[in-house]
């Protein structure tokens, strides 16, 4: 049960923010207060409803025990109705009060790589990337390809993209891991079903203040971009390779003709990888409470199978199976799966919080 003192403190904090917004003058202060106001608004509305129900329960309890029989019966009936509403409302509020992942509002660096399965794995990696492109379009997000290594038949050996918008990581983080496909490959002549895989990494894109990179820790090499077979595709040293010496993380970029643009893209990816490494380290420290939870984001974990002969998609983390594979792989049917994963993740975190309490 959420203590009434906590509900009162939430409402008081919200009212304080509203009062500050009416007198704020600086743009930075207004933005900060508006963000806090937006984050608390729905929670406070729910808290006020719950507080009101609790107050009514006390009043109705007294009336139901009064001498006026008719009034007591009416109060008793209303009392039972409110008692049925209270647990559900409290549960909803508990979920809303769960600690928020500070990266949830971030844009992401999306990396899709072909795994086991040769050419078919690369084709599947292309299918996955286009699924995410369509999903991003439906969510109103922007997708910018940072680098791509194409394969035959419209596939990718690997592809990296920046997916930007509001709340991208909050949804896309559940896609990190190994995706498996079972189907007859386009290259198969005897109609046999093959199993292939691709890996997906979803790295929250940090703000400049989230992670500082010391220039002295970087080794930057420039070289000529190369195409298939290693041939040079331009005559200037425009390709960039950045090595973060303390961690050994290496990022190369050569898609742009400008060395400056390649360096900017490489730094964006490097920053995301270092930020993800720091997040992974912090998560490891909390592993006992979070082990096995839906939102772990472990890219080595097999998370989903796409079975084309049966038009079936199975998410192994929550045992969810749907039979609209064509819609899912187009991106149009992906959101219901992600919402189920988010709901299970919230339930897991709530259970862990209650165990710790």
Strand content: 15-25%
Distance between the termini: 11 Å
Count structural domains: 3
Rg is 26 Å
Strand order of the largest sheet: 2-3-1-5-4-9-10-11
Q: Provide a count of the helices.
A: 9
Number of strands: 11
Helix coverage percent: 40-55%
- The average pLDDT value, as a whole number, equals 87
Low-confidence stretches: 286-293
Category from helices, strands and their pairing:
alpha+beta
What is the CATH class designation of the largest domain? Answer: Alpha Beta
Overall form:
flat
CATH fold description of the largest domain:
Alpha-Beta Plaits
Characterize the largest beta sheet: strand count, sense, and whether it forms a barrel: 8 strands, mixed
Q: In the CATH hierarchy, what is the architecture of the largest domain at level 2?
A: 2-Layer Sandwich
* SSE succession: HHHEHEEHEEEEEHHEEEHH
Please explain how this structure is put together.
This protein has 357 residues and is an alpha+beta fold. The chain folds into three domains: 4-96, no CATH class; 108-205 and 286-356, Alpha-Beta Plaits, CATH 3.30.70.1660; 215-282, Double Stranded RNA Binding Domain (2-Layer Sandwich). Helices cover 48% and strands 20% of the residues. It is built from nine helices and eleven strands. The chain has helices spanning 4-23, 27-64, 69-96, 118-139, 168-172, 259-285, 287-290, 325-330, 334-356, and strands at residues 108-114, 142-150, 156-164, 177-183, 194-204, 218-223, 239-244, 249-253, 302-307, 312-315, 320-322. The strands form two sheets. It has an eight-stranded mixed beta sheet with strand order 2-3-1-5-4-9-10-11. Strands 6-7-8 form a three-stranded antiparallel beta sheet, covered by helices on one side. Helix 2 (27-64) packs antiparallel against helix 3 (69-96). The protein is flat and about 90 Å long. The model is unreliable at 286-293 (pLDDT under 50).
């Amino acid at each position: 049960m959420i203590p009434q003192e906590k509900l009162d403190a939430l409402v008081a904090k919200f009212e304080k923010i509203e009062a500050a917004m009416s007198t704020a003058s600086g743009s930075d202060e207004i933005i900060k207060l508006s963000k806090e106001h937006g984050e608390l608004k729905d929670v406070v509305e729910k808290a006020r409803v719950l507080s009101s129900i609790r107050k009514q329960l006390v009043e109705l309890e007294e009336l139901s025990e009064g001498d006026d029989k008719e009034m007591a019966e009416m109060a008793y009936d209303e009392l039972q109705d409110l008692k049925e509403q209270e647990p559900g409302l409290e549960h909803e509020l508990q979920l809303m009060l769960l600690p928020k992942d500070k990266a949830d509002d971030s844009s992401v660096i999306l990396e899709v790589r072909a795994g086991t399965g040769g050419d078919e794995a690369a084709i599947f990696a292309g299918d996955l990337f286009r699924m995410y492109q369509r999903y991003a379009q439906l969510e109103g997000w922007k997708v910018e390809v940072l680098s791509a290594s194409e394969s035959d038949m419209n596939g990718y050996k690997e592809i990296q993209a920046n997916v930007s918008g509001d709340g991208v990581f909050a949804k896309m983080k559940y896609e990190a891991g190994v995706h498996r496909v079972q189907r007859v490959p386009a290259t198969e002549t005897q109609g046999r079903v093959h199993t292939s895989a691709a890996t997906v990494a979803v790295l929250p894109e940090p703000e400049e203040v989230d992670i500082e990179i010391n220039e002295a820790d970087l080794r930057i090499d420039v070289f000529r971009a190369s195409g298939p077979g290693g041939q040079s595709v331009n005559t200037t040293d425009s390709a960039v390779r950045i090595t973060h010496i303390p961690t050994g993380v290496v990022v190369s970029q050569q898609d742009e003709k400008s060395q400056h643009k390649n360096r900017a893209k490489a730094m964006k990816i490097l920053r995301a990888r270092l930020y993800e490494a720091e997040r992974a380290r912090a998560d490891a420290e909390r592993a006992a409470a979070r082990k096995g939870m839906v939102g772990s984001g472990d890219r080595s974990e097999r998370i989903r199978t796409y079975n084309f002969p049966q038009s079936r998609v199975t998410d192994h983390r929550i045992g969810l199976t749907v039979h609209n594979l064509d819609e899912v792989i187009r991106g149009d049917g992906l959101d219901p799966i992600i919402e189920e994963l988010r709901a299970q993740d919230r339930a897991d975190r709530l259970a862990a919080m209650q165990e710790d309490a």
